[in-house]
Every structure is written in C-alpha cells, then in structure tokens.
Design goal:
By secondary structure, the protein is α/β, with parallel strands linked by helices. It has one domain: Rossmann fold (3-Layer(aba) Sandwich). Helices cover 44% and strands 15% of the residues. It has four helices and five strands. A five-stranded parallel β-sheet has the order 3-2-1-4-5, with helices on both faces. Helix 3 runs parallel beside helix 4. The chain is globular and about 55 Å long.
Length: 154
C-alpha cells in the first residue's frame, strides 16, 4: 500500500526544540518533507535539519521568521512554497512565554506575546489556507496546557 504522506510537505513552527522537534521527527519518519521554522534557535534547527537529511537526503530545510513581526507569515509561506512547490500541513507550534506575575506584565510583553502566540499563528494559517486547499491539507494548532490550567499568579 502506498504511503499517503510520502513526498507531502509540512511546515512546523517552533520546530527546533522540544515538542516541535518531536513532531518534526514523527512527520519525517512517516515520509513527509519538512520546513523547519525557527526564530532564535538556529543552531538546534540546523542540527535537526542535518539529522533528518542524513536519514532521507533533501527532505528538510530551515527557515527563520519572527512570527511576532508583521508580514513574516506571508514570507514564511512564500519561501516554503519556493522550496517545495506545495504545502500539505501547517503545524502552529511556536510560542513565547514570560514568567511574569499578574500585575507586572508590561505593554511590550503583552504585545510580544499576543503577536507571537495569537496574531502570528492566525495570519500564518490565513496565508497558508489557499495552498492547503489545493492539496486538501490541514492546519494543526498546538496550545500550552496553561491555557486551560493557568499557573498560579500568572
């Protein structure tokens, strides 16, 4: 039976470490080509990319983008399409968190968190949607457990 994920393309945000790296490894092991997004974890992203490309040559690339920056999502999708010519899956995994107690949150922190954790994934999904429609693709949004069970005083 043919592998339904073979040669399909996934873009995983925040893919350099932790859950994002695990998701990337699993998708790759199941035959997908990957766009490994990172913001500041360049060394880890390049290491993971090298690891995956040793398993299957030319199956992963890295792209840096700050999702809190306006218009970064369109550039990230465009560069993904330039590399692979298609997009089948978007995994919105990247996030930011500051251990700042309630009452001490600055306007800068609020804007940065809302831009990277809410605005960025929303507009990235919107930029990806037309391309995902063409391939009958999907979007997976990952959230932190603390969205349901907040840390005390945060």
């Amino acid at each position: 039976m043919k592998n339904p994920l073979a040669a399909k393309v996934a873009l995983v945000t925040g893919s350099a470490r932790r859950i994002g790296a695990g998701i990337s490894r699993m998708l790759h092991a199941n035959g997908m080509n990957l766009v490994l997004h990172y913001n500041s974890s360049e060394e880890e992203a390049n290491s993971l990319c090298g690891e995956l490309n040793q398993i299957r040559d030319n199956s992963a690339i890295t792209i840096r983008a700050g999702l809190q920056e306006a218009e970064s999502e369109k550039s990230l999708i465009d560069r993904s399409l330039q590399a692979w010519g298609r997009l089948d899956l978007l995994v919105n995994n990247a996030s930011r968190f500051y251990r700042t107690q309630f009452g001490d949150v600055t306007e800068y922190a609020w804007e940065d968190l809302m831009n990277s954790n809410l605005r960025g994934p929303f507009f990235l999904a919107q930029a990806a949607a037309p391309h995902l429609r063409k391939t009958k693709g999907a979007i997976i949004n990952i959230i932190d457990i603390h969205g349901e069970r907040p840390l005390m005083d945060y």
